[in-house]
Design goal:
Strand 3 and strand 4 form a beta hairpin. The N and C termini lie far apart (70 Å). The chain contains 3 helices and 8 strands. With 186 residues, it is an alpha+beta fold.
Length: 186
């Protein structure tokens, strides 16, 4: 009887850990500060130069955006864009969590860098795959409690930063439900 209990415990732990890894819950070395997004969310990002930036740098020159780049934790460039014309720093950009070939990126840590005339402005993000079907109820509970997007990491007074938020949410696993209701009066 005790052997059956040990085997059962081993199976439950194995399934739970496997499901946790599938959901992107265990992802290695973490950056000191990051914002978490789910794999079915697109990330809206824009550069913010607070008023203190112009005071602390004693400049009235408006910074311009030259492009943006997404890199994986290993430093590999995942996606990016460069601009031939002047783009203002108040411009919003969207990363749909796809690489240059159009494939969804794997769960893990990524860095968003907006390249400006004042230098790069970066933010670390974590992508978790909470919309994949989970193997056990326990792992679904862990994954659905992933922190959502919002907030930002602390920055020095007057330093530029990236504002991050959810641009859109696509249906999980390719399934979607749309309701259409129409009322006509007699």
């Amino acid at each position: 009887m005790r052997r059956w209990a040990w085997v059962s415990l081993f199976l439950v732990l194995t399934i739970g850990l496997t499901a946790g890894a599938d959901c992107g819950c265990a992802q290695g070395v973490e950056p000191p500060c990051y914002v978490t997004f789910r794999s079915n969310e697109a990330i809206l990002f824009s550069t913010v130069f607070p008023v203190e930036y112009f005071v602390t740098n004693a400049t009235a020159e408006t910074p311009f955006v030259l492009g943006w780049m997404i890199t994986a934790a290993d430093g590999a460039v995942v996606r990016g864009a460069t601009f031939d014309d002047v783009v203002g720093w108040l411009t919003d950009f969207v990363w749909d969590l796809r690489d240059e070939t159009g494939r969804d990126v794997a769960p893990g840590f990524y860095q968003i860098a907006v390249l400006t005339t004042a230098g790069p402005v970066v933010a670390d993000v974590r992508v978790v795959s909470c919309c994949n079907p989970c193997v056990s109820c326990w792992s679904c509970c862990v994954c659905t409690s992933c922190p959502g997007a919002g907030g930002r990491c602390p920055t020095a007074c007057g330093a530029p930063y990236l504002e991050l938020s959810v641009a859109s949410i696509k249906s999980c696993c390719g399934f979607g439900v749309t309701f259409h209701w129409e009322w006509t009066s007699p």
